[in-house]
Amino acid sequence: MRTQVGIIGAGPAGLLLSHLLYLQGIDSIIIESRTREEIEGTIRAGVLEQGTVDLMNQMGVGARLMKEGLFHEGIELRFNGIGHRINMHELTGGKHVTVYPQHEVIKDLVEARLKTGGQIHFHVGDVSLHDVDTASPKIRFRWDKEGDIQEIVCDYIAGCDGFHGPSRPAIPQSVRKEYQKIYPFGWLGILTEAPPSAPELIYANHDRGFALLSTRNPQVQRLYIQVDAADNIVNWSDDRIWTELHTRLESKDGFKLIEGPIFQKGIISMKSFVCDPMQYGRLFLAGDAAHIVPPTGAKGLNLAAADVQVLARGLEAFYKTGKTEMLERYTEVCLRRVWKAERFSWFMTTMLHRNHQHTPFEHRIQLAELDYVTSSRAASISLAENYVGLPMEF
Ligand code: FAD
Ligand code: DHB
């Protein structure tokens, strides 16, 4: 097989990139290790920045998102039992975020790719990268996990295969510098069939740990609680989860958390991670393959969308003019934005979670930080402009 850009991974990064390239008349093939049903059914992110929504609309894949997405102009930060609204719309000059689940984004993108003749090969196995520092890099894989070995010869490879994929290790270790921070806690997330308990997201700092009230649609709500990094979901009965949520989200203004049947629950670990460079020869990493943020700032999917816009522009310039300057600057351009999102996600995580390694001094600093960001206009603007998403800089 031969294509211009071989894409490994059909997550948000790979699918967005493939469709952006298609719109510029550039060929790509996506290979994905999971089935279509699996990628369309995995519950992950929920909050899209304005820039991600604009991108979906410009690409012509935003119709359902505009119809079913929930537009939020503010968030609440709750601590010491009192809620403080950050009015993002007013503080950022009219911006908002959109709550629309990641797996719905995936469904819209898969459908758009297949409708326009795009090639996505699902459920492949034994994926490996070859000759990435030559003019004709190759991807090898097996059809249907155990079938025949295939080879795709490409001009470029986009490694969009998430944190555990084979693309990042294809950059020699001597070239890669990796930065990492592991947090001593994780998030237990649930989906419940219940009406919303509040009109906007609530991020709560509580002595027993962080809690987040989010939503999916008028019938389904998404909630998270901080748990120990090593905890196991079998330790969490539905009753225990609700008791913890009631305690941590309690407020002095009469807020009532509405319960419903829990139909999905799981625990995720939390880390910050950056790989520098994000490219080597003709291999380019995008999204979680290159960087991870803890989920508290809702930045992961949005960063993936930002990376692939930079990459698509570089590839477009190469195919139209033969010039590689933009591709050569890929890491530099992406990492400026990535590091700012890393900072914001670390800041939100540190400010909102109860860290048992912290001293009483550090705990009081945390509460002072919350008091500051909710009472100083300058600090509120800073939080709001990061939450709605910093501008793209090419
Ligand atoms: P992925 O989505 O991980 O996609 C990579 C794809 O590559 C996968 O489909 C995988 O199956 C495939 N793959 C892996 N290995 C191979 C291989 N060997 N061969 C072929 N294919 C392979 N982000 C936000 O922006 N907002 C949020 O509100 C938010 N909330 C989150 C909440 C939770 C609970 C979690 C877990 C994450 C959240 N995120 C959020 C982060 C977001 O989900 C990720 O950052 C996003 O999925 C990254 O997209 P990606 O395409 O880079 O990687
Ligand atoms: C959701 C996830 C986040 O990480 C966040 O900060 C807000 C909302 C969600 O899944 O709804």
SSE arrangement:
Elements: E1 5-8, H1 12-23, E2 28-31, H2 36-41, E3 47-48, H3 50-58, H4 63-68, E4 70-72, E5 74-79, E6 82-87, H5 88-91, E7 97-99, H6 102-115, E8 119-121, E9 125-130, E10 138-142, E11 149-153, E12 156-159, E13 177-193, E14 202-205, E15 211-217, E16 220-228, H7 238-249, E17 262-276, E18 279-280, E19 283-285, E20 291-292, H8 300-321, H9 325-328, H10 330-352, H11 360-375, H12 377-388
The structure holds flavin-adenine dinucleotide and 3,4-dihydroxybenzoic acid (DHB).
The site of flavin-adenine dinucleotide has 34 residues, from α1 and α8.
Describe this entry's structure for a reader.
- The chain is an alpha+beta fold.
- The protein is built from twelve helices and 20 strands.
- The strands form four sheets. An eight-stranded mixed beta sheet has the order 6-5-14-15-16-13-17-20.
- A hairpin with a 7-residue loop joins strand 9 and strand 10 (138-142).
- The longest helix has 23 residues, at 330-352.
- It is globular.
- The protein starts with a strand and ends in a 6-residue tail after the last helix.
- The model has no long low-confidence stretch (mean pLDDT 97).
- The structure holds flavin-adenine dinucleotide and 3,4-dihydroxybenzoic acid.
- The site of 3,4-dihydroxybenzoic acid has 10 residues, from strand 15.
